[in-house]
Amino acid sequence: MQESIKKQKLNNVIPFVPEGDFYFSHGVKAFKKRKFDNALKWIQRAVEKSPDDPLYQCQMSIIYTEIGLFHKANEVLTNVLKTANEQYSDCFYLLANNYAHLGLLSDARKYAETYLEQEPDGDFADEAEELLEIIDLEEQDDWLLDDEDELIIYQETAFFYMETMNWKKALPILEEMLLLFPDHQQAKHDYAQALFFLGEKEAAYQVEWAELEKNPSSLNSVTNLALFYYIDKRQSEYESLIRALLNIYPMHDHQKLRLATVLGRTGYYETAYNRFRMINKEAVKGHLSYYRWYSYTLYHLGKKDKALTIWKEGCKKHPMMLKEVHPWDR
Fold first, then answer.
1. 133 and 74, same structural domain?
2. Which of 124, 144, 164 finishes a domain?
3. Is the pLDDT of residue 7 over 50?
4. 168-181: buried (b, 16+ CB within 10 Å) or exposed (e) per residue?
5. In the chain, N or C terminus with fewer CB closer than 10 Å?
6. Of 66-70, 235-239, 292-296, which one has max mean pLDDT?
């Protein structure tokens, strides 16, 4: 009798069969927590359940973008544009953003302009216009560099000395570079760093404050000044700058690296870790600073095995790192 009742209860249980929305909601939650691997698994299950739902596919493309799989993201977005019954204009902006990351500026321009034609007041209108401005600047820089082989030599030489923190050799190169190319912005910020770490701190502050006055939104100026004030233990000045940086999410990987590095070096280890994870490693593998300060950040979070793994990876790609002591031992 008892057994019969149990069977009857079991027969009355309605089995739970998850639908696409169930997987999608879990995927979005994981994405917001920046757990991209888990988010991708959930969203892929949602797509399997509802392969014709363009929303699921668009979200999947955004995750691919976050982890640096730009080509994969574009495949998904192109498929949405081909198969969706209604036009998903946001796809055009997402495609533009991905092509910009890949350095394919003509494609990025085409899709950004298409998005603005279809959605002049859309959710991504401001971002699309900003992207077009950045593309204009990038294309101008490319045109200038084509005619200025000398500048490329200076850039590469200065970059090497800056990445190896050889400030004495970097400084005269940067001084010459600024005499020949006085409007080169990156050289000015590198020059300020070289001055600071060679002990000419007041001059370094003056350079960056002058640049910040000209361009109040200069990420390079704010990151340099935040680092300088932190090292000089000028806490109030440092805190006012670092608060602004916490709300900035650059588009380009080199800017992402600069910001993650400063956050890590100034004790914002958890935030820096999340920012380092957002960087496409392939785009910054030529930077010793990526391996140096990412491993430093990991070590201070207690992820010591991971820190050593990143450090050893950097040493393989850049043997000159073998001469350095671990950054956390300095």
1. yes
2. 144
3. no
4. eebbebbeebbeeb
5. N
6. 292-296
Mean pLDDT of the chain: 85
The count of domains in the chain is 2
Residues 321 and 201 in one domain: yes
The reply to whether 93 and 161 lie within a common domain is no
Q: Is residue 126 domain-resident?
A: yes
- Which range is least confidently modeled, 38-47, 67-76, 122-131? 67-76
Same domain, 309 and 184: yes
Give the CATH number of the domain where residue 288 resides: 1.25.40.10
If you average pLDDT over residues 141-165, what whole number do you get? 75
How many other C-beta atoms are found inside a 10 Å radius of the C-beta of residue 28? 15
3-state secondary structure the chain: CHHHHHHHHHHHCCCCCCCHHHHHHHHHHHHHCCCHHHHHHHHHHHHHHCCCCHHHHHHHHHHHHHCCCHHHHHHHHHHHHHHCCCCCCHHHHHHHHHHHHCCCHHHHHHHHHHHHHHCCCCCCHHHHHHHHHHHHHHHHHHHHHHCCHHHHHHHHHHHHHHHCCCHHHHHHHHHHHHHHCCCCHHHHHHHHHHHHHCCCHHHHHHHHHHHHHHCCCCHHHHHHHHHHHHHCCCHHHHHHHHHHHCCCCCCCHHHHHHHHHHHHHCCCHHHHHHHHHCCCHHHHCCCHHHHHHHHHHHHHCCCHHHHHHHHHHHHHHCHHHHHCCCHHHC
Q: Is 317 contained in some domain? A: yes
Contact 42, 72 (CB under 8 A): no
Query: Is 0.70 topped by the overall pTM?
Result: no
Opening angle at CA 15, ends 13 and 20, nearest 5: 150
Q: Are residues 174 and 122 in the same domain?
A: no
Last residue of a domain, one of 113, 144, 175: 144
CB 158, CB 166: distance < 8 Å: no
